[in-house]
């Protein structure tokens, strides 16, 4: 063990001496490895960052929540599009019958949405507000957190009271220098009182943040607009109980909706049951393809860099032939000579990997400063990448090292 350690340290020393004596050549041989490692880790990091941001947005929709809607989130290419068009939208009567009959649900809510609306408070106004109206169980089907105020009482929901919960961006726009609670704002041409402000969540990639949302009781809005209209995207949101899996909830919902819509066994469903696992599966496929593409491009660059290092190692063996002869004549074993060149090739690859990783971290730092986006650099993938570098170094240096170890000492010395 001590002999091996001594041999290893001496090999590293010889390798560093060789690299110091040929700085430009070493630098040029590093370029391919550096670009390859930077590409691989950069693509993986970009994909992981995008995936995490998208997954965080998807998670807001609820892992045990199913959305009964007219349109599916993922289209089946074999299903005629005109059948989707002819489907009825979820109606209040569907919602009411579901509430009466469903057993596996923690909460059931009927919701509609209206985008791009203007809301006013005195001389202040906010454009592009997202108006949502929901039945009382909305708070059971979604994660509702408050910065100030409270949720609707059951009597307010039932009576359709003119009250509203607003997002933090709406609050900042309408009340820059005042507390929003208790203020009367103008929404849909009606005056409503602000009773709560949603917790700020910031932007997300699926635009499901409540920051620009105004939530109103469904029974209030139904007196102002036609909530049956397709233009408002009516949907029924169902969240399962903790002991009920999403598959069990989906099975129960499908049976109940077919019964409520009075569909016979031969008829297709005229509704869609959408869930977050559908989006997650699509994300897995999409990012899997991107990962493979990045791995291929980066791997090709690393492979080209490996050939460059192999070529440099052949040149190095040629230049140091007489030194190898002297070492062998003084008793150096073949494995010691071979170790020198293998360690040199591995060090070149690892140095290229370190430089590539450093460039990724530098770009991540610049991105954070410039766009306030946190780039995820997965440590596990970094380890795998450096293992790959070591293997490339071994493969690149093996043949030159083997040739150096097999040199005849007399012929090697006479080569000078």
TrEMBL record:
GO terms for molecular function: transmembrane transporter activity. Residues 27-254 form the MacB-like periplasmic core domain. Its main location: membrane. InterPro entries: ABC3_permease_C, MacB_PCD, Macrolide_Exporter_MacB. It comes from the Bacteria. Belongs to the ABC-4 integral membrane protein family. Residues 296-409 form the ABC3 transporter permease C-terminal domain. It comes from Hufsiella ginkgonis. The chain crosses the membrane at residues 26-47, 285-314, 335-363, 383-405. Pfam families: FtsX, MacB_PCD. GO terms for cellular component: plasma membrane. Keywords: Cell membrane, Membrane, Transmembrane, Transmembrane helix. This is FtsX-like permease family protein. It is a multi-pass membrane protein. It is found in: Cell membrane.
């Amino acid at each position: 063990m001590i002999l091996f350690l001594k041999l290893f340290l001496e090999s590293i020393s010889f390798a560093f001496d060789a690299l110091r004596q040929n700085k430009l050549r070493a630098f040029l041989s590093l370029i391919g490895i550096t670009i390859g490692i930077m590409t691989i880790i950069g693509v993986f990091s970009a994909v992981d960052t995008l995936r995490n941001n998208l997954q965080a947005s998807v998670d807001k929709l609820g892992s045990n929540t199913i959305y009964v809607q007219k349109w599916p989130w993922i289209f089946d290419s074999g299903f005629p599009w005109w059948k989707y068009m002819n489907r009825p939208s979820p109606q209040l009567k569907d919602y009411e019958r579901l509430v009466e009959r469903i057993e596996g649900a923690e909460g059931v809510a009927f919701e509609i949405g209206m985008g791009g609306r203007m809301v006013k408070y005195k001389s202040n106004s906010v454009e592009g507000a997202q108006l949502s109206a929901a039945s009382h169980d909305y708070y059971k089907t979604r994660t509702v957190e408050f910065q100030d105020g409270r949720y609707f009482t059951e009597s307010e929901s039932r009576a359709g009271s003119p009250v509203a919960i607003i997002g933090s961006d709406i609050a900042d726009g309408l009340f820059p220098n005042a507390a929003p609670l208790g203020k009367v704002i103008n929404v849909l041409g009606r005056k409503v009182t602000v009773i709560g402000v949603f917790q700020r969540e910031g932007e997300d990639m699926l635009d499901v943040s409540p920051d620009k949302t105004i939530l109103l009781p469904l029974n209030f809005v139904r007196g102002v607009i036609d909530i049956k209209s397709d233009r408002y995207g009516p949907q029924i949101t169902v969240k399962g109980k903790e002991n009920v899996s999403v598959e069990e909830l989906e099975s129960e919902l499908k049976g109940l909706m077919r019964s409520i819509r009075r569909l016979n066994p031969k008829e297709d469903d005229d509704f869609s049951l959408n869930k977050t696992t559908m989006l997650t599966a699509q994300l897995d496929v999409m990012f899997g393809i991107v990962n493979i593409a990045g791995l291929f491009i980066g791997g090709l660059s690393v492979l080209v860099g490996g050939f460059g290092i192999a070529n440099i190692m052949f040149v190095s063996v040629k230049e140091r032939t007489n030194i190898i002869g002297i070492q062998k004549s003084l008793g150096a074993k073949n494995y010691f000579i071979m170790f020198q060149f293998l360690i040199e090739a591995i060090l070149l690859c690892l140095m290229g990997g370190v430089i590539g990783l450093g460039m990724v971290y530098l770009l991540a730092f610049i991105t954070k400063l410039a766009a306030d986006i946190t780039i995820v650099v997965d440590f596990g993938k970094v380890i795998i990448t450096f293992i790959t570098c070591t293997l490339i170094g071994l493969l690149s240096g093996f043949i030159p090292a083997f040739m150096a170890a097999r040199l005849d000492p007399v012929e090697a010395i006479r080569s000078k």
